[in-house]
C-alpha cells in the first residue's frame, strides 16, 4: 500500500511540475513577454501597393496643381522672365525621395518597415538601394541594402507636391518656412525632413522608430532663379515670404 500511495502522489506531482500544456490550450511560443526571441525586433512590414483602393475602376482626374500650372503659372513665368517660346518655360520633371537606413546593417528587417512607410507616403513601391563599396569601420559590405528611394513622375508627382505643400509642411514642428539656399545651381531643389510623422498617411501608433528623408525637386529650369520662381508659384512656402502663394483652382476648370 505504501508503494501504491507513493506512486500516485509522485505521478500527480510530476504532472503539475513538469507537465506540458493543458488540453485545448495553444502551444507555447518562444519569445513571449519577458523572453528573448522576437523582442526588440521591428514589426512585420506590409506591402500596401498591392491592395485595391476604392477608386480602382474610376477614371482618373487631372491633379489640381497641374491644372494650376497650365492655366496660371505658365503665363506668370512667361511674363516675369520674358519667355517668348512656351517650351522655354520651366516645369517640374520629377520628385525623388531618398531615405538612408544605417541601422539596416544590424537589423535588416528595419529596412522593410521604412519601405512600407515610403510606399504609404508616395503610393508607389520604393527601390532598395545597395552599398557601392565595403566600409569595414561601419561593418558594411558591398551590395548590402542600406536604404530606399522613390522617383515620382506624372500625376503622382503633382499629387505628392500638392499634399506636401498643403498638408505636410504645416505639420512640421516650429515651421518658419523652407530654406532658399538649397538649390544646386542647375535648377534643382533639395530639402531634408527630420520626421516622417508630418505625412498624414503615417499612423502614429504603428511607428517604431522616427527617421528622416531627403526630397529633391528636379525641374527643367537652367537657372536657380527660374526654379525658385516656379516652386514659389506652385505654393512652396519659402522662408521670408510674408504671405506664401496659395494655388487656387476654380471648380469649373478642375471639372
What does this structure look like?
By secondary structure, this protein is of the alpha+beta class. It has a domain at 78-100 and 149-254: 50s Ribosomal Protein L5, Chain: A, CATH 3.30.1440.10. Helix content is 31%, strand content 13%. The chain is built from six helices and five strands, in the order ααβαββαββαα. A five-stranded antiparallel beta sheet has the order 2-3-1-5-4. Helix 2 (64-81) packs across helix 5 (224-233). The chain is globular. It starts with a helix and ends with a helix.
List descriptors:
255 residues; globular; 50s Ribosomal Protein L5, Chain: A; 5-stranded antiparallel β-sheet; 5 strands; alpha+beta; 6 helices
Strand and helix map with partners:
Elements lengths: L1 H17 L45 H18 L10 E9 L7 H15 L4 E4 L14 E8 L1 H15 L19 E6 L19 E7 L4 H10 L17 H4 L1
Antiparallel strand pairs: 1-3, 1-5, 2-3, 4-5
Helix pairs in contact: 2-5
**CATH topology-level fold name of one domain:** 50s Ribosomal Protein L5, Chain: A
Radius of gyration: 28 Å
- Overall form: globular
User: Secondary-structure element order, as H and E?
Assistant: HHEHEEHEEHH
Q: How far is the first residue's CA from the last residue's CA?
A: 96 Å
Strand order of the largest sheet: 2-3-1-5-4
Largest sheet: 5 strands, antiparallel
Full CATH superfamily name of one domain: Ribosomal protein L5
The chain-level mean pLDDT equals 78
Query: What is the tally of helical segments?
Result: 6
Number of strands: 5
| Low confidence ranges | 5-19, 28-37, 251-255
Amino acid at each position: 500500500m505504501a508503494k501504491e500511495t507513493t506512486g500516485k502522489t509522485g505521478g500527480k506531482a510530476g504532472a503539475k511540475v513538469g507537465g506540458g500544456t493543458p488540453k485545448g490550450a495553444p502551444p507555447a511560443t518562444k519569445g513571449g513577454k519577458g523572453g528573448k526571441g522576437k523582442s526588440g525586433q521591428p514589426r512585420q512590414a506590409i506591402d500596401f501597393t498591392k491592395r485595391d483602393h476604392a477608386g480602382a475602376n474610376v477614371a482618373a482626374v487631372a491633379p489640381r496643381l497641374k491644372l494650376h500650372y497650365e492655366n496660371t503659372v505658365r503665363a506668370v513665368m512667361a511674363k516675369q522672365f520674358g519667355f517668348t517660346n512656351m517650351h522655354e518655360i520651366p516645369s517640374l520633371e520629377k520628385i525623388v525621395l531618398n531615405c538612408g537606413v544605417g541601422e539596416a546593417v544590424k537589423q535588416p528587417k528595419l529596412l522593410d518597415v521604412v519601405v512600407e512607410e515610403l510606399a504609404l507616403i508616395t503610393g508607389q513601391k520604393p527601390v532598395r538601394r545597395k552599398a557601392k563599396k565595403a566600409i569595414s569601420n561601419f561593418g558594411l559590405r558591398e551590395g548590402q541594402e542600406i536604404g530606399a528611394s522613390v522617383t515620382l513622375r506624372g500625376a503622382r508627382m503633382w499629387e505628392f507636391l500638392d499634399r506636401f505643400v498643403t498638408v505636410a509642411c504645416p505639420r512640421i514642428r516650429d515651421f518658419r518656412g523652407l530654406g532658399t539656399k538649397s538649390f544646386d545651381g542647375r535648377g534643382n531643389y533639395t530639402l531634408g525632413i527630420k520626421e516622417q510623422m508630418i505625412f498624414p498617411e503615417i499612423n502614429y501608433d504603428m511607428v517604431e522608430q522616427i527617421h528622416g528623408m531627403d526630397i529633391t525637386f528636379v525641374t527643367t529650369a537652367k537657372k536657380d532663379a527660374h526654379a525658385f520662381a516656379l516652386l514659389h508659384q506652385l505654393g512652396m512656402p519659402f522662408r521670408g515670404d510674408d504671405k506664401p502663394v496659395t494655388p487656387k483652382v476654380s471648380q469649373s476648370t478642375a471639372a
